[in-house]
Amino acid sequence: MNNFLSVKDATDINHLIERARYFKTHPHENAYIGQHKTLINLFFNPSLRTRLSTEKAGTTLGFQVITMDMAGGWKLEFEDGVVMNLDRAEHVKEAAGVLSQYCDILAVRSFPGLEDRNADYEDRIIHAFRKYATVPVVSLESATRHPLQSLADCITIAEHRKTERPKVVLTWAPHPRQLPQAVPNSFAEWMTGWDEVDLVIANPEGFDLAPEFTAGAEVLHDQAEALRGADFVYAKNWSAYEPYGATTDRTDWLVDTDKMALTNDAYFMHCLPVRRNVVVSDGVLDSPRSLVLQQANNRTWSAAAVLEALLVR
Ligand SMILES: NCCC[C@H](NC(=O)CCC(=O)O)C(=O)O
Ligand SMILES: NC(=O)OP(=O)(O)O
């Protein structure tokens, strides 16, 4: 594996799941893998799980781990050929070149602006690092995708499925803020790329994800119809792809115990952080069918599997 930016970089998802599950059951035997190697994590946006689970994965494999909050660094320029006489003090060409001398793997979190769809969907920040870094680049959630989360979600489903090909429902849910499409885009492309589940996506009219991510999934605009017979329910809010960044106040899409009663005693999933009683009711989140903490635990092991794969390329 040369980089880890999307499902396309994962040539064998089941092998990554296997390695993640191995690291999970043997957490103290793998410090030789990253010995004398350095992982740098750059955060342009807040994080709890990604930051700490990736650091934990790195140290578990023996890496030296350095994390930098980019709010404390120079403001970077990403455009080529510009006259840098405004507030951006350093070009990504130099920054990526410098960082590549300090580390063996460079990981980056960069959310979308949610104003200019073309700019966001070009995923400029992560691709600029990929272009100018000379070491493998890992997405810690970019403008369009969150592959470490999606791999952790595959692991969680693999651990809990009772049928060979479970029905997985990704449902839009309400939220007071305008949120990215990265988590649902990525979840959809990993579920269909893995091809071990039947994926149904439920969202209000006007909230369809970009078609490039939903190919292979059934898209429904009736949440109850989608939930019927589900084995896993994955809730997430996202703002609209068209018109880009639009939001809606559809509080009737909150996932509660009545909705879960339509399912095949489904497990509930969410990437976190989650707004209680806005996205999902306390009753669902606090029930034994909720897998949100297991998903967060698997973030460490998904990151470990990816870090290993990037070293043996
Ligand atoms: N990394 C996981 C999700 C991050 C982000 N959620 C958020 O920003 C929620 C923040 C809030 O609830 O205010 C998203 O949806 O992509
Ligand atoms: N799920 C997830 O990526 O959480 P953080 O935003 O806290 O990293």
UniProtKB/TrEMBL annotation:
Residues 216-309 form the Aspartate/ornithine carbamoyltransferase Asp/Orn-binding domain. N(2)-succinyl-L-ornithine binds at residues 141, 175, 236, 275. Residues 3-159 form the Aspartate/ornithine carbamoyltransferase carbamoyl-P binding domain. Carbamoyl phosphate binds at residues 47-50, 74, 109, 146-149, 271-272, 299. Pfam families: OTCace, OTCace_N. InterPro entries: ArgF'-like (IPR043696), Asp/Orn_carbamoyltranf_P-bd (IPR006132), Asp/Orn_carbamoylTrfase (IPR006130), Asp/Orn_carbamoylTrfase_sf (IPR036901), Asp_carbamoyltransf_Asp/Orn-bd (IPR006131). One of its GO terms (molecular function) is amino acid binding. GO terms for biological process: citrulline biosynthetic process; L-arginine biosynthetic process via ornithine. Keywords: Amino-acid biosynthesis, Arginine biosynthesis, Transferase. Pathway: Amino-acid biosynthesis; L-arginine biosynthesis. Homotrimer. Catalyzes the transfer of the carbamoyl group from carbamoyl phosphate to the delta-amino group of N(2)-succinyl-L-ornithine to produce N(2)-succinyl-L-citrulline. Is essential for arginine biosynthesis. This is N-succinylornithine carbamoyltransferase. It comes from Neolewinella xylanilytica. The lineage of its organism: Bacteria, Pseudomonadati, Bacteroidota, Saprospiria, Saprospirales.
